[in-house]
Amino acid sequence: MSGEKVIYNEADNQRSVTPPQNSSMAESGIDTAYEKKIIRKVDLRLLPILAAVYSVAIVDRTNMGSAAIAGMTEDLKLNIGSRYSIVLLVFFIPYCIFELPSNLVLRRVGSAVWLSSIAFSWGVVTIGMGFIKDWRILVFCRVLLGFFESGFLPGCVYLICSWYMRYEVQQRLAGFYLLTSIVGGLSSLLAYGLMQMDGIQGLAGWRWILIIEGVITVTIALLAYLFIIDFPDKLLQRRKPFLTDFEVEIIKSRIDRDRDDSQADPITWGIVVHHLSDWKLWVYALLLMNSTIPGYAIAYFLPIILKGMGYSTGMSLVMSFLLVIPAVVVSLPLACWADKSRLRAPFIVLGTLLILAGLTMTAYSSDHGVRYFGICLCSIGSLSNIPAVLAYQSNNIRMSSKRSVSSALQIGFGAIGGVFASTVFREKDAPDYRNGFWAAIGCQLLTLLLLACTTVYFKKKNRQQKEGTLDKFLENHPEFTYTV
């Protein structure tokens, strides 16, 4: 996006138009090959370390399924009543509550310090979970885990989306998320290996799963402090930035040409409330919630479902990992295609249809092979839709403050998807979980309805913006258009 820069005055709800501060950069004809070289430097520095830390977050969050079939259920008596579901559920309460405050702290403290500190903290908690004797202490540890993990994913999404242009972001989010999914899938194989340590030092195999995975988290968190980078407008404040002043200005110029918000605007609780009054942010949040439900259900209950089909513990964990391979093979090319076509909703619809087909096959087929193929379709659809929905939100908002609020709200609702999966997939419905599958199907139908509404609305508003018939500019900028 080029031309004039629109400044939103929160106090009087007015707009003023000023020339962009770095318009000279935008008009100087920067060599695109040089720009791509800089972006590759950003890719290599930003995405791998964030993916590594979020990978261990996924492992620490979802290792309950592996630990459960490795003996934790019997040792802590989680098979009484709804104890297992409670252990899963309590994680998401602080996870939802503290995401927005964490994003506000992130800008003040700095990405490296904040994100590595909370990762170190949840790693310590995971280690401690390996030594507990009472299921109630496990509940408390899961609450702490949710508290510390709450800030990481919204912080990652906020940070990644701040570095790239709108139609570069989905493939980056997909690469980031799918890499974490691969590691998360490998965690089932790691868990199977750690189970073989059963009896060493007098500790059960499930305890070694938690202890070793926690140690890995702490180690990666220490590396994260050294390698995580800050936002573009704060990067040069670091002692040894990995980009030169000129390269940072090129990055900021690209962002301003695209959406004109390279410089962070102030954020207060009043501005937070104002952003939360935008109904579209709640739609993006619901879309992510619906996309995460199948993923959480697979992570938490797939080993149990497969074991109910008659597979051994080891084979159940291996088959859980194998689901990740087709998901990555399909999802990453779709993300690149979506960025190239500059479309979002059609790709989310495709992923949703895959989820619907998979849920139906798994719920109603009596053939184990068909049920497993259905779970595979669910995995592909869910892993494809999560970065697509995150990009859908990112493409249709402007300003750093709104991005901070929106990413936290959206990831918070993604966590609610975990709560939903933890409660509708009930132990008494095992191993078929028919009621849980129907609830998940209903959420996918809601996704299709919401996408139909936003697509009609966005096309109408884009047309009005082009015709100049709107009372207010879209996202407070005369050249902004929604991505459909």
From TrEMBL:
- A GO CC term assigned to this protein in UniProt: membrane
Molecular functions per Gene Ontology: transmembrane transporter activity
Which UniProt keywords are present, listed alphabetically? Membrane, Transmembrane, Transmembrane helix, Transport
Q: How does it sit in the membrane?
A: Multi-pass membrane protein
Residues of the Major facilitator superfamily (MFS) profile domain: 46-459
Top-level taxon of the source organism: Eukaryota
Q: What is its main location?
A: membrane
Q: Which Gene3D superfamilies match?
A: MFS general substrate transporter like domains (1.20.1250.20)
Question: Cross-referenced PROSITE patterns, in alphabetical order?
Answer: MFS
The residue range of the signal peptide is: none
Q: Where does this protein reside within or beyond the cell?
A: Membrane
**Pfam families the record matches:** MFS_1
List residues traversing the bilayer: 44-62, 82-100, 112-131, 137-161, 173-194, 206-229, 281-305, 317-338, 345-364, 370-392, 404-425, 437-458
The residues forming a coiled coil are: none
Q: Which PANTHER family match?
A: MAJOR FACILITATOR SUPERFAMILY (MFS) PROFILE DOMAIN-CONTAINING PROTEIN, PERMEASE-RELATED
Q: What is this protein called?
A: Major facilitator superfamily domain-containing protein
> What's the source species for this entry?
Tuber borchii (White truffle)
